[in-house]
Protein backbone atom coordinates (compact mmCIF):
# COMPACT_ATOMS: atom_id res chain seq x y z
CA UNK A 1 0.00 0.00 0.00
CA UNK A 2 1.42 3.42 -0.81
CA UNK A 3 0.65 6.88 0.56
CA UNK A 4 -1.90 7.92 -2.10
CA UNK A 5 -3.76 4.64 -1.66
CA UNK A 6 -7.56 5.05 -1.70
CA UNK A 7 -9.55 2.91 0.71
CA UNK A 8 -12.17 1.46 -1.65
CA UNK A 9 -14.65 1.16 1.23
CA UNK A 10 -14.71 4.94 1.49
CA UNK A 11 -16.38 5.34 -1.92
CA UNK A 12 -20.04 4.88 -2.77
CA UNK A 13 -21.06 4.03 -6.35
CA UNK A 14 -20.62 7.58 -7.61
CA UNK A 15 -17.28 7.89 -5.84
CA UNK A 16 -16.08 4.61 -7.35
CA UNK A 17 -17.19 5.71 -10.81
CA UNK A 18 -15.13 8.88 -10.43
CA UNK A 19 -12.21 6.82 -9.14
CA UNK A 20 -12.32 4.53 -12.19
CA UNK A 21 -12.84 7.46 -14.57
CA UNK A 22 -9.60 8.88 -13.18
CA UNK A 23 -7.92 5.63 -14.27
CA UNK A 24 -9.50 5.83 -17.72
CA UNK A 25 -11.88 2.95 -16.90
CA UNK A 26 -15.59 2.58 -17.66
CA UNK A 27 -18.24 3.22 -14.96
CA UNK A 28 -19.35 -0.45 -14.89
CA UNK A 29 -16.07 -1.32 -13.21
CA UNK A 30 -17.52 0.18 -10.02
CA UNK A 31 -20.37 -2.33 -10.07
CA UNK A 32 -18.00 -5.24 -10.61
CA UNK A 33 -15.80 -4.05 -7.79
CA UNK A 34 -18.71 -3.62 -5.39
CA UNK A 35 -19.93 -7.14 -6.11
CA UNK A 36 -16.50 -8.52 -5.32
CA UNK A 37 -16.07 -6.58 -2.11
CA UNK A 38 -19.56 -6.67 -0.62
CA UNK A 39 -21.23 -9.72 -2.09
CA UNK A 40 -18.36 -12.15 -2.55
CA UNK A 41 -16.22 -10.82 0.32
CA UNK A 42 -13.19 -10.69 -1.98
CA UNK A 43 -10.92 -7.79 -1.14
CA UNK A 44 -7.63 -8.66 -2.89
CA UNK A 45 -7.56 -7.21 -6.42
CA UNK A 46 -5.61 -10.28 -7.53
CA UNK A 47 -8.64 -12.47 -6.82
CA UNK A 48 -11.08 -10.32 -8.84
CA UNK A 49 -10.97 -12.53 -11.87
CA UNK A 50 -13.22 -10.59 -14.26
CA UNK A 51 -10.93 -7.56 -14.13
CA UNK A 52 -8.01 -7.44 -16.52
CA UNK A 53 -4.57 -8.27 -15.17
CA UNK A 54 -3.45 -4.69 -15.87
CA UNK A 55 -6.37 -3.19 -13.95
CA UNK A 56 -5.81 -5.57 -11.06
CA UNK A 57 -2.23 -4.53 -10.67
CA UNK A 58 -3.13 -0.83 -10.88
CA UNK A 59 -5.76 -1.38 -8.21
CA UNK A 60 -3.22 -3.12 -6.03
CA UNK A 61 -0.93 -0.16 -6.46
CA UNK A 62 -3.39 2.70 -5.95
CA UNK A 63 -6.04 1.32 -3.64
CA UNK A 64 -6.62 -0.83 -0.61
CA UNK A 65 -9.50 -2.26 1.40
CA UNK A 66 -8.90 -1.31 5.00
CA UNK A 67 -11.40 -2.74 7.49
CA UNK A 68 -11.78 -2.07 11.20
CA UNK A 69 -10.21 -4.81 13.31
CA UNK A 70 -12.13 -6.95 15.74
CA UNK A 71 -10.69 -6.30 19.20
CA UNK A 72 -13.27 -8.52 20.87
CA UNK A 73 -16.39 -10.48 20.03
CA UNK A 74 -19.06 -11.53 22.50
CA UNK A 75 -22.08 -13.75 21.85
CA UNK A 76 -25.01 -13.52 24.26
CA UNK A 77 -27.12 -16.45 25.44
CA UNK A 78 -29.96 -15.04 23.28
CA UNK A 79 -27.78 -14.96 20.14
CA UNK A 80 -27.04 -11.23 20.23
CA UNK A 81 -23.44 -10.49 19.18
CA UNK A 82 -21.33 -7.51 20.11
CA UNK A 83 -18.02 -6.50 18.59
CA UNK A 84 -15.56 -4.01 19.90
CA UNK A 85 -13.77 -2.72 16.82
CA UNK A 86 -10.40 -1.05 16.78
CA UNK A 87 -9.94 1.74 14.23
CA UNK A 88 -6.68 2.77 12.59
CA UNK A 89 -6.09 5.56 15.12
CA UNK A 90 -6.60 3.24 18.08
CA UNK A 91 -10.17 4.39 18.81
CA UNK A 92 -12.75 1.78 19.79
CA UNK A 93 -16.38 1.58 18.66
CA UNK A 94 -19.07 -1.01 19.23
CA UNK A 95 -21.42 -2.77 16.81
CA UNK A 96 -24.26 -5.07 17.86
CA UNK A 97 -26.20 -7.75 15.95
CA UNK A 98 -29.69 -8.72 17.13
CA UNK A 99 -31.08 -11.88 15.50
CA UNK A 100 -34.83 -12.42 15.26
CA UNK A 101 -36.83 -15.11 13.47
CA UNK A 102 -37.52 -13.07 10.36
CA UNK A 103 -34.62 -10.64 10.32
CA UNK A 104 -31.13 -9.84 11.55
CA UNK A 105 -30.62 -6.27 12.71
CA UNK A 106 -27.23 -4.61 12.97
CA UNK A 107 -26.88 -1.59 15.25
CA UNK A 108 -24.16 0.57 13.71
CA UNK A 109 -22.12 3.39 15.28
CA UNK A 110 -21.62 6.74 13.56
CA UNK A 111 -19.13 8.53 15.82
CA UNK A 112 -16.42 7.78 18.36
CA UNK A 113 -18.19 9.04 21.47
CA UNK A 114 -20.94 11.63 21.17
CA UNK A 115 -21.29 15.37 21.72
CA UNK A 116 -24.96 15.53 22.69
CA UNK A 117 -24.62 14.63 26.36
CA UNK A 118 -27.99 12.97 26.97
CA UNK A 119 -28.14 12.43 30.72
CA UNK A 120 -29.06 8.72 30.63
CA UNK A 121 -26.66 7.52 27.91
CA UNK A 122 -23.40 5.64 28.47
CA UNK A 123 -21.79 6.89 25.25
CA UNK A 124 -22.20 10.50 26.45
CA UNK A 125 -19.85 9.73 29.34
CA UNK A 126 -16.86 9.43 27.05
CA UNK A 127 -17.40 12.77 25.36
CA UNK A 128 -16.90 13.31 21.65
CA UNK A 129 -13.79 12.15 19.87
CA UNK A 130 -14.50 12.24 16.14
CA UNK A 131 -16.85 11.38 13.31
CA UNK A 132 -16.51 7.97 11.69
CA UNK A 133 -15.44 7.89 8.04
CA UNK A 134 -17.54 6.20 5.34
CA UNK A 135 -15.27 3.14 5.34
CA UNK A 136 -15.55 2.82 9.12
CA UNK A 137 -19.35 2.87 8.92
CA UNK A 138 -19.78 0.45 5.99
CA UNK A 139 -16.86 -1.54 7.42
CA UNK A 140 -19.01 -2.40 10.45
CA UNK A 141 -21.57 -4.05 8.15
CA UNK A 142 -18.86 -5.88 6.20
CA UNK A 143 -17.14 -7.16 9.35
CA UNK A 144 -20.41 -8.17 11.03
CA UNK A 145 -21.63 -10.18 8.02
CA UNK A 146 -18.27 -11.89 7.75
CA UNK A 147 -17.97 -12.68 11.47
CA UNK A 148 -21.60 -13.87 11.62
CA UNK A 149 -21.09 -16.25 8.72
CA UNK A 150 -18.02 -17.64 10.48
CA UNK A 151 -20.20 -18.19 13.57
CA UNK A 152 -22.75 -20.08 11.45
CA UNK A 153 -25.41 -17.33 11.19
CA UNK A 154 -27.27 -17.13 7.86
CA UNK A 155 -29.87 -14.93 6.20
CA UNK A 156 -33.26 -15.90 7.72
CA UNK A 157 -34.46 -17.33 4.38
CA UNK A 158 -31.11 -18.73 3.25
CA UNK A 159 -32.36 -22.31 3.09
CA UNK A 160 -34.91 -21.41 0.39
CA UNK A 161 -32.31 -19.94 -1.93
CA UNK A 162 -29.50 -21.37 -3.98
CA UNK A 163 -25.77 -21.19 -3.29
CA UNK A 164 -25.40 -18.34 -5.77
CA UNK A 165 -27.62 -16.19 -3.58
CA UNK A 166 -25.71 -13.31 -2.07
CA UNK A 167 -27.99 -12.67 0.84
CA UNK A 168 -26.11 -12.11 4.06
CA UNK A 169 -27.02 -12.46 7.76
CA UNK A 170 -27.57 -8.70 8.23
CA UNK A 171 -31.01 -7.88 6.75
CA UNK A 172 -31.64 -4.59 8.56
CA UNK A 173 -29.40 -1.75 9.71
CA UNK A 174 -30.21 0.73 12.44
CA UNK A 175 -27.96 3.77 12.82
CA UNK A 176 -28.49 3.57 16.56
CA UNK A 177 -25.09 2.73 17.97
CA UNK A 178 -22.62 5.21 19.40
CA UNK A 179 -22.95 8.82 18.27
CA UNK A 180 -25.49 11.11 16.63
CA UNK A 181 -25.65 10.11 12.95
CA UNK A 182 -27.04 13.44 11.72
CA UNK A 183 -24.03 15.30 13.14
CA UNK A 184 -21.94 13.17 10.73
CA UNK A 185 -24.38 13.71 7.87
CA UNK A 186 -22.33 13.31 4.70
CA UNK A 187 -20.44 10.19 5.76
CA UNK A 188 -23.55 8.53 7.18
CA UNK A 189 -25.58 9.22 4.02
CA UNK A 190 -22.80 7.91 1.75
CA UNK A 191 -22.52 4.76 3.87
CA UNK A 192 -26.30 4.25 3.86
CA UNK A 193 -26.36 4.69 0.08
CA UNK A 194 -23.72 1.99 -0.12
CA UNK A 195 -25.71 -0.41 2.08
CA UNK A 196 -28.75 0.14 -0.14
CA UNK A 197 -26.92 -0.27 -3.44
CA UNK A 198 -28.03 -3.37 -5.36
CA UNK A 199 -24.42 -4.19 -6.17
CA UNK A 200 -23.51 -4.04 -2.49
CA UNK A 201 -25.72 -5.29 0.36
CA UNK A 202 -28.90 -4.22 -1.44
CA UNK A 203 -30.91 -3.29 1.66
CA UNK A 204 -34.17 -1.50 0.92
CA UNK A 205 -34.92 1.95 2.42
CA UNK A 206 -37.45 0.30 4.66
CA UNK A 207 -34.70 -1.81 6.21
CA UNK A 208 -32.34 1.06 6.99
CA UNK A 209 -33.31 3.21 9.96
CA UNK A 210 -31.57 6.31 11.22
CA UNK A 211 -32.11 7.33 14.83
CA UNK A 212 -31.69 10.96 15.85
CA UNK A 213 -31.96 12.94 19.07
CA UNK A 214 -33.62 15.64 16.94
CA UNK A 215 -31.19 17.54 14.69
CA UNK A 216 -33.98 19.39 12.90
CA UNK A 217 -32.17 20.99 9.91
CA UNK A 218 -30.40 17.72 9.14
CA UNK A 219 -33.72 15.84 9.33
CA UNK A 220 -34.95 18.10 6.53
CA UNK A 221 -31.82 17.44 4.49
CA UNK A 222 -32.23 13.71 5.02
CA UNK A 223 -35.84 13.89 3.85
CA UNK A 224 -34.69 15.64 0.68
CA UNK A 225 -31.68 13.48 -0.12
CA UNK A 226 -31.96 10.04 1.48
CA UNK A 227 -35.35 9.37 3.08
CA UNK A 228 -34.61 6.19 5.03
CA UNK A 229 -36.81 5.10 7.93
CA UNK A 230 -36.57 7.59 10.75
CA UNK A 231 -36.51 7.04 14.50
CA UNK A 232 -36.62 10.01 16.86
CA UNK A 233 -35.44 9.81 20.47
CA UNK A 234 -38.22 11.73 22.20
CA UNK A 235 -38.06 10.46 25.82
CA UNK A 236 -40.23 13.22 27.31
CA UNK A 237 -43.58 14.84 26.50
CA UNK A 238 -42.69 18.38 27.61
CA UNK A 239 -39.78 20.74 27.03
CA UNK A 240 -38.88 21.19 30.68
CA UNK A 241 -38.16 17.48 31.14
CA UNK A 242 -36.71 16.95 27.66
CA UNK A 243 -34.30 19.87 28.16
CA UNK A 244 -32.90 17.90 31.07
CA UNK A 245 -32.72 14.47 29.40
CA UNK A 246 -31.75 15.50 25.86
CA UNK A 247 -29.96 18.88 26.06
CA UNK A 248 -30.30 19.29 22.26
CA UNK A 249 -33.95 20.08 23.03
CA UNK A 250 -32.92 23.58 24.12
CA UNK A 251 -31.97 24.23 20.51
CA UNK A 252 -34.79 22.32 18.82
CA UNK A 253 -37.73 22.09 21.22
CA UNK A 254 -40.51 19.53 20.92
CA UNK A 255 -42.91 21.60 18.77
CA UNK A 256 -40.15 22.35 16.25
CA UNK A 257 -39.03 18.72 16.27
CA UNK A 258 -42.53 17.36 15.71
CA UNK A 259 -43.06 19.79 12.81
CA UNK A 260 -39.94 18.33 11.20
CA UNK A 261 -41.38 14.84 11.78
CA UNK A 262 -44.64 15.83 10.04
CA UNK A 263 -42.68 17.16 7.05
CA UNK A 264 -40.69 13.92 6.97
CA UNK A 265 -43.75 11.69 6.74
CA UNK A 266 -45.58 13.93 4.31
CA UNK A 267 -42.78 14.54 1.83
CA UNK A 268 -40.88 11.31 1.89
CA UNK A 269 -43.92 9.07 1.64
CA UNK A 270 -42.67 7.23 4.71
CA UNK A 271 -45.37 5.36 6.50
CA UNK A 272 -44.57 6.57 9.97
CA UNK A 273 -41.94 7.79 12.39
CA UNK A 274 -40.69 5.61 15.22
CA UNK A 275 -40.49 7.50 18.51
CA UNK A 276 -38.13 6.06 21.09
CA UNK A 277 -38.99 6.60 24.71
CA UNK A 278 -36.64 5.33 27.40
CA UNK A 279 -38.53 4.34 30.57
CA UNK A 280 -36.85 6.02 33.54
CA UNK A 281 -38.25 5.12 36.93
CA UNK A 282 -40.22 8.04 38.43
CA UNK A 283 -38.85 10.51 35.87
CA UNK A 284 -40.89 10.25 32.65
CA UNK A 285 -43.06 7.17 33.21
CA UNK A 286 -46.29 8.32 34.92
CA UNK A 287 -49.80 8.02 33.44
CA UNK A 288 -49.82 11.81 33.06
CA UNK A 289 -46.69 11.61 30.90
CA UNK A 290 -48.31 8.89 28.79
CA UNK A 291 -51.48 10.97 28.22
CA UNK A 292 -49.44 14.00 27.28
CA UNK A 293 -47.34 11.95 24.87
CA UNK A 294 -50.45 10.52 23.20
CA UNK A 295 -51.74 14.08 22.75
CA UNK A 296 -48.48 15.18 21.09
CA UNK A 297 -48.50 12.33 18.60
CA UNK A 298 -52.21 12.48 17.78
CA UNK A 299 -51.73 13.80 14.26
CA UNK A 300 -48.41 12.12 13.33
CA UNK A 301 -48.34 8.60 11.86
CA UNK A 302 -46.17 7.07 14.52
CA UNK A 303 -45.00 4.03 16.36
CA UNK A 304 -43.74 4.36 19.93
CA UNK A 305 -40.91 2.12 21.10
CA UNK A 306 -40.76 1.98 24.89
CA UNK A 307 -37.19 1.11 25.87
CA UNK A 308 -36.70 -0.17 29.42
CA UNK A 309 -33.78 1.90 30.70
CA UNK A 310 -30.46 0.05 30.77
CA UNK A 311 -28.50 1.22 33.79
CA UNK A 312 -24.72 1.55 33.92
CA UNK A 313 -22.37 2.44 36.78
CA UNK A 314 -22.73 5.96 38.17
CA UNK A 315 -25.98 6.85 36.38
CA UNK A 316 -28.66 8.47 38.59
CA UNK A 317 -31.65 6.72 36.97
CA UNK A 318 -33.36 3.38 37.44
CA UNK A 319 -35.51 1.23 35.14
CA UNK A 320 -39.29 1.57 35.41
CA UNK A 321 -41.12 -1.50 36.74
CA UNK A 322 -42.62 -3.84 34.17
CA UNK A 323 -46.13 -3.04 35.43
CA UNK A 324 -45.50 0.71 35.05
CA UNK A 325 -44.27 0.18 31.50
CA UNK A 326 -47.35 -1.95 30.68
CA UNK A 327 -49.68 0.72 32.05
CA UNK A 328 -47.87 3.42 30.06
CA UNK A 329 -48.19 1.32 26.90
CA UNK A 330 -51.89 0.67 27.52
CA UNK A 331 -52.65 4.38 27.91
CA UNK A 332 -51.01 5.03 24.53
CA UNK A 333 -52.79 2.08 22.90
CA UNK A 334 -56.18 3.24 24.24
CA UNK A 335 -55.51 6.53 22.47
CA UNK A 336 -54.69 4.72 19.23
CA UNK A 337 -50.95 5.28 19.37
CA UNK A 338 -49.27 2.12 18.12
CA UNK A 339 -46.83 1.15 20.89
CA UNK A 340 -44.45 -1.71 21.59
CA UNK A 341 -42.11 -2.36 24.48
CA UNK A 342 -38.64 -3.14 23.23
CA UNK A 343 -37.35 -6.43 24.56
CA UNK A 344 -34.00 -6.12 26.26
CA UNK A 345 -31.52 -8.18 24.30
CA UNK A 346 -27.94 -9.06 25.01
CA UNK A 347 -27.84 -7.56 28.48
CA UNK A 348 -25.55 -10.37 29.68
CA UNK A 349 -22.87 -8.92 27.38
CA UNK A 350 -23.70 -5.21 27.97
CA UNK A 351 -24.97 -4.98 24.42
CA UNK A 352 -28.33 -3.45 25.29
CA UNK A 353 -29.49 -0.07 24.07
CA UNK A 354 -27.47 2.80 25.48
CA UNK A 355 -24.74 0.60 26.90
CA UNK A 356 -22.32 0.96 24.02
CA UNK A 357 -19.34 2.66 25.50
CA UNK A 358 -16.29 1.48 23.60
CA UNK A 359 -14.58 0.10 26.70
CA UNK A 360 -11.46 -0.07 24.72
CA UNK A 361 -11.14 3.73 24.79
CA UNK A 362 -11.54 3.76 28.53
CA UNK A 363 -8.84 1.16 28.81
CA UNK A 364 -6.60 3.13 26.47
CA UNK A 365 -7.22 6.28 28.45
CA UNK A 366 -6.53 4.45 31.68
CA UNK A 367 -3.23 3.14 30.39
CA UNK A 368 -2.34 6.61 29.09
CA UNK A 369 -3.04 7.98 32.56
CA UNK A 370 -0.95 5.26 34.12
CA UNK A 371 1.90 5.97 31.74
CA UNK A 372 1.70 9.63 32.55
CA UNK A 373 1.83 8.90 36.26
CA UNK A 374 4.74 6.55 35.76
CA UNK A 375 6.76 9.00 33.65
CA UNK A 376 9.60 10.71 35.51
CA UNK A 377 8.85 14.29 36.57
CA UNK A 378 11.33 16.77 35.20
N1 LIG B 1 -27.95 9.69 18.85
C1 LIG B 1 -29.01 8.90 18.29
C2 LIG B 1 -28.68 7.42 18.15
C3 LIG B 1 -27.93 6.71 19.27
S1 LIG B 1 -28.77 6.26 20.73
C4 LIG B 1 -30.27 9.09 19.08
O1 LIG B 1 -30.24 9.78 20.08
O2 LIG B 1 -31.31 8.60 18.68
C5 LIG B 1 -29.91 4.99 20.34
C6 LIG B 1 -31.09 4.95 21.30
O3 LIG B 1 -30.72 4.41 22.60
C7 LIG B 1 -31.65 6.34 21.58
O4 LIG B 1 -33.05 6.32 21.57
C8 LIG B 1 -31.14 6.59 22.97
O5 LIG B 1 -31.88 7.59 23.60
C9 LIG B 1 -31.28 5.23 23.61
N2 LIG B 1 -30.52 5.08 24.85
C10 LIG B 1 -29.39 5.72 25.21
N3 LIG B 1 -28.99 5.33 26.44
C11 LIG B 1 -29.88 4.41 26.88
C12 LIG B 1 -29.97 3.60 28.05
N4 LIG B 1 -29.06 3.67 29.01
N5 LIG B 1 -31.02 2.77 28.15
C13 LIG B 1 -31.92 2.65 27.14
N6 LIG B 1 -31.88 3.37 26.00
C14 LIG B 1 -30.86 4.24 25.87
Describe the structure.
The chain is α/β, with parallel strands linked by helices and 378 residues long. The protein has 2 domains: 6-64, Orthogonal Bundle (DNA polymerase, domain 1), CATH 1.10.150; 69-373, TIM Barrel (Alpha-Beta Barrel). The chain contains 11 helices and 14 strands. The chain has a 10-stranded mixed sheet. Strand 9, helix 5 and strand 10 (208-212) form a beta-alpha-beta unit. Helix 6 (216-225) packs parallel to helix 8 and helix 9 (287-296) runs parallel beside helix 10. The longest helix has 17 residues, at 134-150. It is globular. The two termini are 41 Å apart. 43% of the residues are buried. The structure holds S-adenosyl-L-homocysteine. S-adenosyl-L-homocysteine is lined by residues 118, 120-122, 176, 180, 211-213, 233, 276, 278, 307, 309-310, 353-354. S-adenosyl-L-homocysteine binds next to strand 10 and strand 12.
Blueprint (SSEs and pairs):
Elements: E1 6-7, H1 13-22, H2 28-39, H3 53-62, E2 63-64, E3 69-75, E4 81-86, E5 92-99, E6 104-107, E7 111-113, E8 128-131, H4 134-150, E9 172-175, H5 185-196, E10 208-212, H6 216-225, E11 229-233, H7 239-245, H8 254-268, E12 273-279, H9 287-296, E13 302-308, H10 322-334, E14 338-341, H11 359-374
Parallel strand pairs: 1-2, 6-9, 9-10, 10-11, 11-12, 12-13, 13-14
Antiparallel strand pairs: 3-4, 4-5, 5-6, 7-8
Strand order within the widest beta sheet: 3-4-5-6-9-10-11-12-13-14
- Reported by name, the CATH topology of the largest domain is TIM Barrel
Q: Mean pLDDT, nearest integer?
A: 90
Instruction: Output the helix-strand order.
Output: EHHHEEEEEEEHEHEHEHHEHEHEH
Percent range for helical residues? 25-40%
Shape: globular
Give Rg in angstroms.
22 Å
Number of domains: 2
Distance between the termini: 41 Å
- Give unreliable regions as ranges: 361-378
Contiguous helical run count: 11
Structural class computed from helices and strand pairing: alpha/beta
User: Which molecules are bound besides the chains?
Assistant: S-adenosyl-L-homocysteine
**CATH class categorisation of the largest domain:** Alpha Beta
Q: Give me the CATH superfamily of the largest domain.
A: Aldolase class I
Main beta-sheet strand count, sense and barrel state: 10 strands, mixed
Amino acid sequence: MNADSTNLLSLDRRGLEAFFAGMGEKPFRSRQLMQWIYQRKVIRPDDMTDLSKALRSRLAEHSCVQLPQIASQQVSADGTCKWLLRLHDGSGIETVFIPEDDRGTLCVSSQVGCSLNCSFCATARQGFRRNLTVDEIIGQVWIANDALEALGYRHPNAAEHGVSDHRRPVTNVVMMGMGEPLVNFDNVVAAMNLMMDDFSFGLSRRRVTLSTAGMVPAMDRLRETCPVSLAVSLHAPDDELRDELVPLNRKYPIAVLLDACRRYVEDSGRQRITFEYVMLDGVNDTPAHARKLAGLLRDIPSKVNLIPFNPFPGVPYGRSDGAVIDQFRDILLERNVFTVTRRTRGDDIDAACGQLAGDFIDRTRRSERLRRVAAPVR
